[in-house]
Amino acid sequence: MSELHVGLRNITLGFGDQLRLDIPSLDLAPICSTMILGPNGAGKSLLLRVMHGLSQPDTGTVRFPKEYGNRSQQAMVFQRPVLLRRTALANISFALKVRGHNSQEAGRIATTWMVRAALDHLVNVPARRLSGGEQQRLCLARALALEPKILFLDEPCASLDPNAIVAVEALVQDAIDLGVKVIMVTHDPAQAQRLGSEIVLMHQGRIVAQQTKMDFFNFPQNDLVSSFLAGKPLLSHIKE
Amino acid sequence: MQDFTESFWSSLTLIFTGDAELWSIVILSLQVSLMAVALAALMGVPTGALLAVGKFRGRQGIIIFVNSLMGLPPVVVGLCVYLMLSSAGPLGVLDLLYTPTAMIIAQTILITPIIAALSRETIQAVHEEYRDQFTSLCLNNWQRLQALLWEARFSLLTALLAGFGRAIAEVGAVMIVGGNINHLTRVMTTSIALETSKGNLSVALALGTILVLIAILVNAALAVVGTRRREAMHV
């Protein structure tokens, strides 16, 4: 395995007698954005949690390039915004102070990110009073303020309206342009096409396709990809 | 009915003329119960936090035990503290029986489980909400605890007020360990019991009125805390 890849080997994770993740091998290149697509219950979010260390697999290992390996080099934005009962600005500066910045420095960096996320007019508003889209942008700004090498995004645009989606995607694109490795879960192929370089399709806890964006949308690797792109339900297609 | 009306009016006179003896009883009651709440908070909140976020064997058993202690009968607590502090008891040398300190000890024992159990429930709910985010942000245990206590601050205040309500209204335990000694350990509840048995209904009613007012104030404070929390969307 190349040292430059995020590599997963022999990952299994089950709840009861149901295997929710079964990934013998998966390598993700660190220098592009990876979109993890799949229907509900495919194991996308679980895979993200395993990679970020929030869930422990029953077997197998996740290996990162040396400089990306520590969780402090990573950040994650969840499907539902998780915000502290503080002001919007305080949410970002809290994360920065946890990572060792002093109050003054944290305040300065947090203000910069509020501006970049176009939230500067909401600095002193309690974070939980923001709209859904603003809350998710705040979560993204908080994650990016930590200058992560890898950014995990778990369907950050679920339940957002088109305007809010555009704003969130702009921030994600900024991160990609800055060289952050973005690994994002989405069930929306159009979003994957807009933001991804590499696409991974999951179904029933397994990786059923991994292609570049160009190939995924133009030369589907298998019938499952075609069915998924055609919007058809993926039944138990997996050959044992 | 005539008796009640007369007693009620004379009780109001006692309250509004600032009867020194009456108010000294009220002040002692507040001192004892507030001190008990402070001590119970110092022990109960960390215990609740530990039970909320800790992972250790027997945690569930301890939670059940603490929850069941919420219903401790005050007279039993009073009896146990009495046995500990009486001259024949292990802490008899401290000579604390029939002092306000003994009353504070009894009330503290009574309300610490309440504050611990309510804190545990509150902090656990907040922890479940933030667990993944805090892990992702790499908070150490100390940072995590600080953040959880701060995020749960409104609900923790509710727990403290609930404890205070229980302490100030309690009669059995303080009667046993305090002895209801005039100018020394006489608090509102013990005084009401005594004055009623003496037939001195106006004093009993005056104290009862103040006690009810305090209960209303505590509940009003709870409502204000709840409203402020909702207003700020800090739910």
N-to-C series of helices and strands of chain A = EEEHEEHHHEHEHEEHH
Distance separating the two termini of chain A: 26 Å
Mean pLDDT of chain A: 90
The amount of helix of chain B comes to over 70%
Strand content of chain A: 15-25%
Helix content of chain A: 25-40%
Largest sheet of chain B: none
Largest sheet of chain A: 6 strands, mixed
Strand content of chain B: under 5%
CATH superfamily of chain B: MetI-like
Low-confidence stretches of chain A: none
Question: Which chain pair shows the most residues in contact?
Answer: A-B, 21 and 19 residues
Determine and state the CATH class of chain B.
Mainly Alpha
Let me know the number of strands of chain B: 0
**Structural Rg of chain B:** 21 Å
- Count of helix runs of chain B: 10
The quaternary organization reads as heterodimer
What is the architecture of chain B at the second tier of CATH? Orthogonal Bundle
Q: How many H/I helical runs of chain A? A: 8
Structure report:
The complex is a heterodimer of chains A (240) and B (235). In chain A, strand 1 and strand 2 form a beta hairpin. In chain A, 45% of the residues are buried. In chain A, 35% of the residues lie in helices and 24% in strands. Chain A starts with 5 loop residues before the first strand and ends in an 11-residue tail after the last helix. Chain A is α/β, with parallel strands linked by helices and 240 residues long. In chain A, helix 4 runs parallel beside helix 5. The mean pLDDT of chain A is 90. By secondary structure, chain B is mainly α. Chain B has a single domain, classed as MetI-like fold (Orthogonal Bundle), CATH 1.10.3720. Helices cover 79% and strands 0% of the residues of chain B. Chain B is built from ten helices and no strands. In chain B, helix 7 packs antiparallel against helix 10 and helix 9 runs antiparallel to helix 10. The chains are: A alpha/beta (240), B mainly alpha (235).
